[in-house]
């Protein structure tokens, strides 16, 4: 190519530096969207643990609503009537670190309702994933799947959860309490964790 042609290239509107900056920002946003938190325990045996980990990881896209309602409800009760933003943030900051709560719940696959999070004392007769008792190994990786999902889809929405809690507290002060269940449901709807079929299942069964 003729050198004069190379020198005469003009960068539209923003100039060369502007287009370079735009490209860098676009790349940064793409990388940021692809980020995900992957939790790994201190001890991991590939032969023993990999298949079990992946088994429950496949449930993650289907339990977002159940997990949101479980954790938001637990945190809402811990916050109580507080309207102090720092206090609320302290509770939300640890929203995913609830191992005892996870251990009291299990993932089941119901042939009609799909993947669900239910208390350990509730066993679906149509559950094809678990036997009558859950092993320690299964509990460990179910808990792991719930923690990991929380890190990726619930914890990043801490501001929205905080605003929802503050709004509910102010409504209670005015005598307009919508109730805990309504506050939890509206919070998870705001986070877009619950699909139409999740809401329908909750309304008809009273489950998470």
Q: Taking strands numbered 1, 2, ... along the chain, how are they ordered across the largest sheet?
A: 1-2
Beta fraction: 5-15%
Rg calculated over all Cα atoms: 23 Å
Assembly form of the protein: single chain
Catalogue the unreliable spans.
1-34
Main sheet overview: 2 strands, antiparallel
Distance between the termini: 67 Å
**What is the tally of beta strands?**
2
Proportion in helices: 55-70%
What class do helices, strands and sheet pairing give? mainly alpha
Tally of contiguous helical segments: 10
Mean pLDDT: 78
How are helices and strands ordered from N to C?
HHHHHHEEHHHH
Q: What spatial form do the alpha-carbon principal axes imply?
A: elongated
How does the SSE layout of this entry go?
Layout: H1 3-7, H2 15-34, H3 46-57, H4 64-79, H5 85-93, H6 99-103, E1 105-110, E2 114-119, H7 136-153, H8 158-173, H9 180-190, H10 196-205
Helix pairs in contact: 3-7, 4-9, 5-8, 8-9
């Amino acid at each position: 190519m003729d050198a004069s042609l190379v020198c005469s290239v003009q960068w539209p509107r923003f100039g060369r530096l502007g287009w370079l900056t735009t490209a860098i920002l676009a790349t940064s946003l793409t990388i940021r969207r692809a980020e995900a938190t992957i939790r790994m325990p201190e001890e991991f045996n590939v032969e023993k643990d990999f298949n079990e980990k992946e088994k429950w990881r496949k449930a993650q896209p289907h339990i977002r609503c159940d997990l949101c309602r479980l954790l938001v409800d637990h945190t809402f009760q811990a916050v109580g009537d507080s309207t102090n933003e720092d206090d609320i943030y302290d509770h939300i900051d640890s929203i995913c670190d609830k191992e005892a709560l996870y251990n009291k719940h299990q993932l089941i696959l119901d042939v009609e309702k799909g993947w669900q999070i239910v208390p350990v004392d509730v066993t679906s007769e149509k559950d094809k994933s678990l036997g009558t008792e859950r092993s320690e190994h299964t509990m460990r990786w179910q808990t792991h799947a719930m923690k990991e999902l929380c890190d990726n889809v619930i914890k990043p929405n801490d501001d929205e959860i905080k605003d929802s809690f503050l709004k509910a507290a102010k409504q209670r002060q005015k005598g307009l309490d919508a109730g805990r269940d309504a506050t939890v449901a509206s919070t998870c709807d705001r986070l877009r964790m619950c699909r139409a079929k999740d809401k329908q299942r909750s309304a008809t069964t009273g489950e998470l």
